[in-house]
Amino acid sequence: MIIIQPIGGLCNRMRAINSAYMLAEERGDSLTVIWFNNPELNCPFEELFLPNPNLRIINIYSKWDLKKLWYQLRCSYISNEAIKAHKGDGLLEEAYRKGLPKNIYIATEEHFYPCHEYDLFVPVKTLQAKVNKLTHTFGSHPVGVHIRRTDNKPAIDGSSTNAFVQAMKKELEAFPDTMFYLATDDLSEEEQLREIFPGCIISNEGRDLSRNSVSGIKDALVDLWCLSKTAMIIGSYFSSFTDIAADLSGIPKIIAGAAET
User: Fold this and answer.
1) How are strands ordered across the β-sheet holding 76-78?
2) Cβ(41)–Cβ(137) under 8 Å?
3) CA 201/CA 138 separation, integer angstroms
4) Cβ atoms 181, 143 nearer than 8 A
5) Does the predicted model carry a pTM greater than 0.85?
6) Buried b (16+ CB within 10 A) or exposed e, 82-107
7) 3-state SS class at 134
8) How large a percentage of the chain has pLDDT more than 90?
9) How far apart, in whole angstroms, are the C-alpha atoms of residue 200 and residue 196?
10) Is the pLDDT assigned to residue 261 strictly greater than 70?
11) What's the whole-number mean pLDDT along residues 18-25?
């Protein structure tokens, strides 16, 4: 039995669940997901994704939830730190992986098993309809732009606004009909880019930027799926949101500012 408690934001959780699913497949185990609704992501799983027969979802709202504590007592607990300590190049060390006990409870935000397909996750119909409405305006050459700000200092330091502007100008020079789908948690960044690239920016206008609300997480999912429907992504350094947006559809990505480091 494998229990996974994915921690962090939406994309950290998706990649942790994906990894646990691959590990469960290797071991011939069932997989249960403890989905903790907390300020990092305060939205139940079923408000975002359609049910999947390969995942048993348990929503909890407190770290003292009795179902969570019961599973932790029955299983060997594996922390995020333990996963990082035994993770090589995107995969748990073979000896460690094969030595894991029969019943394990993993709490992590890490991608610890190599898998870049996300078929487990299908948006609910209302969110997919919103994605379809936005992507209908994309034109012949849509490019995704993901600018992470607020609480991600590595992304702020590694991918400056100027780096995004230069990458976007380069794309427009090569493809003058480019439309940019912009996903950002900083509305001032969006305002600035709309001034620099008038008529070329599409976004989920009026979106809720809070992680601590159902509507905020739903809007984040819409952004993620819209980015994945572009031809390529200009993304942020050290951002799982950029990485998974590209992985969802297997599209190329470049990291703004990467050439400067």
Assistant:
1) 56-60, 31-36, 2-6, 104-108, 76-78
2) no
3) 10
4) yes
5) yes
6) ebeebbeeebbeeeebeebeeebbbb
7) helix
8) 88
9) 9
10) no
11) 95
**What does the DSSP assignment read for 16-46?**
HHHHHHHHHHHHT--EEEEEE-BTTB-S-GG
Greatest Cα pair distance, the chain, in angstroms, is 59
The pair of three-digit structure tokens given for residue 165, joined into one six-digit string: 């502007």
C-alpha of 155 from chain center? 15
Q: How many CB atoms lie within 10 A of CB 81?
A: 11
> Terminal CA-to-CA distance of the chain, rounded, Å?
43
Distance CA 20, CA 5 (A): 10
Are 245 and 228 in contact, with CB atoms under 8 Å apart? Answer: yes
Q: Which pLDDT score, from 0 to 100, does residue 259 have?
A: 56
Q: What separation in angstroms does the CA of 202 have from each of 136, 137, 215, 230?
A: 11, 8, 20, 12
Query: Whole-angstrom Cα distance, residue 46 to residue 57?
Result: 9
Question: Tell me: the pLDDT tens digits for 119-140?
Answer: 999 999 999 999 999 999 999 9
Q: To which H or E segment does residue 132 belong?
A: helix 125-135
pLDDT of residue 258: 82
Among residues 39, 41, 42, 22, the alpha carbon closest in space to that of 31 is found at: 22
Beta-carbon count within 10 A of 227 CB: 27
CA–CA dist 260, 256 (Å, integer): 9
Q: What are the residues facing 123 on neighbouring strands?
A: 49
Cα separation, 73 vs 60, whole angstroms: 17
Average pLDDT, the chain: 94
